[in-house]
Amino acid sequence: MEKITGKNNDLVKNVKKLFSSSKQRREQGLFVLEGARLVFDVLNSFYDVKYFLITQSAYDKYKSQSDKMAEVCKGSYLITDELAYKISDTQNSQGVYAVCKIKDGVDFELKENSRLVALDNVQDPGNLGTIVRTAEALGIDGVIVGGGCDIYNPKVLRASMGSMLRINLVKTDCLTDCLSSLKSKGYKVYGTSPLSSAESITDIDFSKGGVCVIGNEANGISCEVADICDNLITIRMSGRAESLNASAAASIIMWEMLR
What we know:
This protein has helices at residues 10-20, 22-28, 36-41, 56-61, 63-72, 81-87, 125-138, 154-160, 163-166, 175-184, 223-228, 246-258, and strands spanning 2-4, 30-34, 49-55, 75-79, 96-101, 115-120, 142-146, 169-172, 189-192, 199-200, 210-214, 231-234. By secondary structure, the protein is of the alpha/beta class.
């Protein structure tokens, strides 16, 4: 591995930019993973690694995985602990980083009776990552992300615990078009709502598949998306709270879709 020690190294400076700027990620078609679990998870994912950076102490700890990573990426580099701290997006760096290529036109093939979740302008990285992690854990067939938070935001990737790298996922700037396409293939689309007039999630039969849309944290699903939905559904609550956190609501809905 080539060694990097200088603070002004172009690659090191660029990794820092990719961590902090969604604009840089879009323009370069790259994103960064940090931490041993996420970095080495990418070896069994849909994504290709361009650069791999690791400290000597981390390499000694993860030698086998590091050697595999070095074989598949364009460039692998040993960096100092000081540089690892400079790059890091966390308080306690493990000294392991991977710069990965963003997939163009990420899509998935629908299997028969697929159960899908669509996110309408979900803004919070923690919510997005948690929803994707739960979707993978429960066995949801795919997640559609319409607008909202950058799916390659470091906080999203950490909250998903690697699920973002493995789950079938579509990122779209026009959720209505995507939902209309699914409806043309016979899928029913359900929009979540806090309204008492909405149908209870427990009364919906998902045995033939379907799509449930989770709305923005503050405003719920948009009027345009609501107009496309076949039904509005809700989680009946007996307590005094008016609504649930987006990721909590999504978890309950996904559980009901699969039970």
